[in-house]
Amino acid sequence: MDFSFSAEDEAFRARARGWLADRLADGRPFADLRTPQGFTADRRRAWERELGAGGWIGPDWPGRDGADGAGPAGAGPDGAAVAADRAGSDRSADPLSRRIVWAEEYARAAAPAPLGIVGEHLLAPTLLRHGTEAQRARFLPGIAAGTEIWCQGYSEPGAGSDLAAVRTAAVPTEDGSGWLITGQKTWTSLSQWADWCFVLARTEPGSQRHRGLSLLLLPMDQPGRIDVRPIRQLDGDSEFSEVFFDAARADAAHVLGGLGNGWRVAMDLLSFERGVGMLGRQIGYARELDAVLAAAAGSGAAEDPVLRERLTRQWAELHVMRCNALRTLGTAEPGTAAVAKLVWAGWHQRLGELAVQTLGPDGALVGGLAHDPADYPLLPVQHRMLFARADTVYGGSDQIQRNIIAERVLGLPREQRAAAS
């Protein structure tokens, strides 16, 4: 297969690389985001708005270059300039290729994790596929401008990877103008900073499993009705939270994909999570692997033939993952997303373990004995290793991915599940 990019794609790549360097290089406006001190919620919000003003959020959305007028325009003068540039030079470029290029350059620049990732990469493509015209008009511009941050209300206690077991319920308001949502979600990424949440809830009383579910869009600013409680992680951060809903209100017009169609919409949304973004993720993985190789060479750990073989295997597997991701882009083959998730999660987890092992005995120390243990000063490789423990759980655990492959691709008998209590 031809994995090369067109001249238009490479021209887009040059613009993306130049824009990122202008904002993130030492001494530039957002260079502080590469430091722990600068990586604050306020600065991350400012960066999201900067991406929006430049027209870089959703560069592959329909109409982003003015070709068909179906999507939001880039916000601000910078976005207008980018749109004009695109119209003149790469109108014929494949939008999917453009998204791949942007994801790769973003990762190559070591740009900060965007606050708007859930809105841009999960909700927006789902709106484009399942949303009404009014829903797209209401929500896409805020995502594109970086002014509205989203979180995902899927997992619950007792309904993590088994998403069909959700119990959060929604009942219609007395006047029929909206829905009142009651229940609990957990492991909700970025929820303490989010403006909106899309929530998978039961809108049909007494329904079970995949039936009677709907995906509702609701504002997070509902004091007394929504309670967000950050969860402290092993690495000391709190990117995840528990979210409690007590008759939180969603507008009747904000049911995405139609009433009772929540399972189908939710599964489509998860397929977006494991698509093009994986290619950008792999650029970041390559940088992490290079750092581990350099550390192994510097410490002498690379002289160990067993460790050297494991590092070589990591390198080869990363290249295979990239080729497979490119090969399967845009396909609707069942199980494709499950295979990709299963492969990269285990790979990244093993890399984290290798990274710490290359440090030798120092890898077991947390910042040295001179520090107050309450400071929890982790080395970057220790931070990545601990966070990677979740890779094989979030977004669907390894066990769930294997079940999907076995049942939906290989046609093996379905796993016996205990009856709902």
Automatic annotation (TrEMBL):
Cofactor(s) in the UniProt record = FAD
Q: Which residues form the Acyl-CoA oxidase/dehydrogenase middle domain?
A: 151-246
Composition bias of kind Gly residues appears in 68-77
InterPro entries registered for this protein in UniProt: Acyl-CoA_Oxase/DH_mid-dom (IPR006091), Acyl-CoA_Oxase/DH_mid-dom_sf (IPR046373), AcylCo_DH-like_C (IPR036250), AcylCo_DH/oxidase_C (IPR009075), AcylCoA_DH/ox_N (IPR013786), AcylCoA_DH/ox_N_sf (IPR037069), AcylCoA_DH/oxidase_NM_dom_sf (IPR009100), Mycobact_Acyl-CoA_DH (IPR052161)
Q: What top-level branch of life does the organism fall under? A: Bacteria
Residues in Acyl-CoA dehydrogenase/oxidase C-terminal domain copies: 260-410
Q: Which residues form a coiled coil?
A: none
Any idea where the Acyl-CoA dehydrogenase/oxidase N-terminal domain is? 7-146
**Region listing for Disordered, in residue ranges:** 53-92
Keywords, comma-separated and alphabetical: FAD, Flavoprotein, Oxidoreductase
Q: What is stated as this protein's family in its record?
A: Belongs to the acyl-CoA dehydrogenase family.
Protein's name in the database: Acyl-CoA dehydrogenase family protein
Organism in which the protein naturally occurs: Streptacidiphilus cavernicola
